[in-house]
Amino acid sequence: MLASWLQISGIPLAVVGPVKNPVLVFLIILTIMLVAPLLFERLRLPGIIGLILSGLVVGPYGLGILQRDETIVLLGTVGLLFLMFMAGLETSLEDLKLNAGKASIFGAFTFLLPMLIGTVAMLAIGYDFLAAVLVASCFASHTLIGLPIVSELGLMRLQTVTATLGGTLITNVLALLVLAVVVRAHQGELTPQFWLTLIPSIALYTFATFWGVPRLGRWFFQRFGHDEGAEFTFVIATLFLVAYGAGLIGIEPVVGAFLAGTAITPIISPLSPLMNRIQFIGNTLFVPFFLISVGMLINPGILLGDPRTLLVGGVMIAAEVVSKFLAAWIPAQLFGWRFASAMVMFGLSMAQAAATLAAITVAFNVKLVDELTVNGTIAMILVTCIASPWIVARWGQQLQPREVASEASDLPRPAWGSRVLVPVVNPETESNLLRLALILAKKDGGTLLPLHVLSDRAGISPAALARQEQLLSFAESLAHSAAARVEAIRRVDDSVEKGIIRSALERQATLVILGWRGYSTYAENFFGSIIDAVVRQVEIPVLIARFPVPLETTRRILLAAPELEVSPGSLQQTIGLAQTLAGELKAALQLLLVQTRPLRERSPGPGAASYAHLPVQRVQGGLVAEVLKALQPGDMLVGVLSEARSRFRLSREPEIIARHRPDLPMIVVHLPAAHPPRLQESVLAAGDSTWYWG
Q1: Percentage of residues of the chain with pLDDT beyond 90
Q2: 669: three-class secondary structure by DSSP
Q3: Which residues contact 196 (CB under 8 A, 6 or more apart)?
Q4: CATH class of residue range 68-403
Q5: Does 397 score more than 60 pLDDT?
Q6: 3-state class of 351 per DSSP?
């Protein structure tokens, strides 16, 4: 150990530690978090390795600067739970369903092969059967040390990664069940009552998590979605509640953390400020704490303490590496994946860390294994924790250009998010409009343009200026919290509609999002509303949105359109928008195509083949009646305005639906006319057009 060597060399240990001052301890750890990743990335090595090795250097088996005390253990445990929780958050339930077969196959291989090879290897060096099975179960489980690298490379939706995440869930649960069974068998307590209690508990716990967490989350966000601090606290409390519940029924809390993330992910948009806060705090603070704490577990001196440790450690490392490689390579061959995909699976699934050490510690405490096994386990942790992130980074870079999961069957998505203009007026509706804009802007790497217009017709009061500043400051804060570019626009103009139209032109907006109450006043019906004026004069897409409930509560997007009265181009662009929203809100997508013509004229419209792969329901009848019949709780309705005879008026259908369903979120899409501006102006002057809503 370095600390012992320093003492022998005459260097006083008081110089190197252990440090007791909590402020200095935290400063040292923060310095490691800052310096180690930057230094190792300069050396073209993953920053994770720097954090692990830094933990070794400053830990009790290195320089002895820091002790792995209760505080380090607490924060390291929180970091491990955060790591698994964020893995669950980035795991799409739809992707898991689509790749359930692959995840199951990989999970079976990555559990059975390490169990078989590990048991044979440990029996060969003199272990009894129960001890050999328990050690082999530690080979089967793994910790996703390399997951942050996968996230940085943008590979989280790769089929390889999705299968690995699903397989991790399977193998960790099975490995922990093996641990519980072996310990009970060693203690002579493997009774029928044990099985009758454990299996129903796991089934009930899993059902309660996947059924209860999303519903509780939607209720909370609907009631308290305006309070961002409350949202964050609720999500973190859910993480620890589910993780604690896992411990109560006898499975590892990390499995509960992964399930919590997977269960709550449908109500957290990947591009939302809430997701940004979770990832920032996790990746910046808690996950590095976990990696440093893992490094502090490593004791290089044990390899020299007893020659038998080298044998046990060597056998454990060889059995674990060989079995995990075969468990990744064989499924990759079955699925027809490249060798690089197999190596990413291998790299992710080979790392052993705190969960493995915890299992071995339990076995050591009940005298099922000896100290040599504990030392060999630590050696295995050292090798696999260093090799895992390097392998993932090395082969993950080869996958990034070609194999990132994509929905090849999707229609081309409209790139409207370059510069999104959002007039903000009402604080109660501002948040949802801005979140919709942020989803589209961040998806395209664009800029949010929050706008507030003051009309100077009756003068401008100090209170109006203060309100303008308050609204735009909130918009800027929301954009910054989501790590999005923002340009706030403070404008004084002749009227609100002119301010919107001129700002869209001057700031080169690519999309305008307007809020809508869900009804029109008598004056608006007679003279036209601000929405009518903007839709009539801008030459870019306009989304007319109404959000009586938070976006996060959306479970399904229902796109309704009169198929034969909407141009194929407009319908395809609207479907592309709906697909984008469904992907980001993690909601299902349903197309409702209403055919209002007589049955003898009914036929799929032109371009229908382009969206034939999507869930489509074709019905005949009135648009409003069919939409109201198809709506379900948790729906968001998306429709499209299509050009027919030319008065730019929001038609009556949306108002009728909003009156029947006052809690229904709605987006009405207006796409600019395909003909040139001058021709459009002449058509407007002639007054020969109207708009249908779908």
Answers
A1: 13
A2: strand
A3: none
A4: mainly alpha
A5: yes
A6: coil
List Cβ neighbours of 535 (8 Å cut-off, separation of 6 or more).
542, 544, 641, 648, 650, 670
Mean residue pLDDT of the chain comes to 79
Joined together, the tokens standing for residue 460 give 């401008």
Those residues with Cβ within 8 angstroms of residue 258's Cβ, 6 or more apart along the chain or in another chain? 84, 85, 87, 88, 91, 165, 168, 169
Question: For residue 261, what is the enclosing H or E element?
Answer: helix 253-264
CA torsion 124-127-133-134 (nearest 10°) is -140
Q: Hey, what amino acid is at 302?
A: I
- CATH number corresponding to 412-528+535-543: 3.40.50.620
**What homologous superfamily is domain 547-694 in, according to CATH?**
HUPs (3.40.50.620)
CATH topology identical between 68-403 and 412-528+535-543: no
557: enclosing H helix or E strand: strand 556-562
Tokens 């150990």 found at: 1
Question: What average pLDDT does the segment 33-51 reach?
Answer: 82
Delimit the domains of the chain by residue range: 68-403, 412-528+535-543, 547-694
Question: Residue 537, Cβ neighbours under 10 Å: how many?
Answer: 18
Report the interhelical angle of 371-403 vs 307-335 (nearest 10°).
30
**Amino acid type, 323:** S
User: What is the Cα–Cα distance from 15 to 383, expressed in whole angstroms?
Assistant: 30
- pLDDT per position as a tens digit, 564-575: 677 777 888 888
Q: For the CA atoms of 122, 127, 131, 132, what is the dihedral angle to 10 degrees?
A: 20
Q: Are 118 and 141 in contact (CB under 8 A)?
A: no
Confidence category of residue 603, pLDDT binned at 50, 70, 90: low
- Residues 170 and 589: their CA atoms lie apart, in Å, by 29
- Helix pair 354-365, 371-403: axis angle to 10 deg: 160
Which of 223-227, 349-353, 500-504, 547-551 shows the lowest mean pLDDT across its residues? 223-227
The structure tokens 């096994």 sit at 373
Q: Is the dihedral of CA 631, 637, 640, 644 positive or negative?
A: positive
Whether the pLDDT of residue 400 is over 90: the answer is no
Phi, then psi, of 68 in degrees rounded to 5: -85, 75
d(CA 377, CA 357): 7
- pLDDT exceeds 70 at position 305: no
